[in-house]
Amino acid sequence: MARKRKLNLKLKKGALRNYMLKNYGSKAFTSRGTIKEEYLKKAVKEGNAHTKKMALFALNARKWK
Questions:
Q1: Predicted TM-score (pTM) of this structure
Q2: Using the 8-state DSSP alphabet, how is residue 1 labeled?
Q3: Nearest to 54 by CA among 23, 26, 31
Q4: Burial classification of residue 44, based on how many CB atoms lie within 10 Å of its CB (0-12 exposed, 13-18 middle, 19 or more buried)
């Protein structure tokens, strides 16, 4: 059986939310306050390495629910 590897992500709480608010404004959020999937995908394409990690983690975490 394969060992599960710990995710080595150094994420600060609210970092991705602040990035989205600064770069895309309120249009990147739904009425409930969650980040829209299309803007997460934009962040993966346009962001730096750390932003890409945060956005990919958020996209993958949606699948875990």
A1: 0.77
A2: -
A3: 23
A4: middle
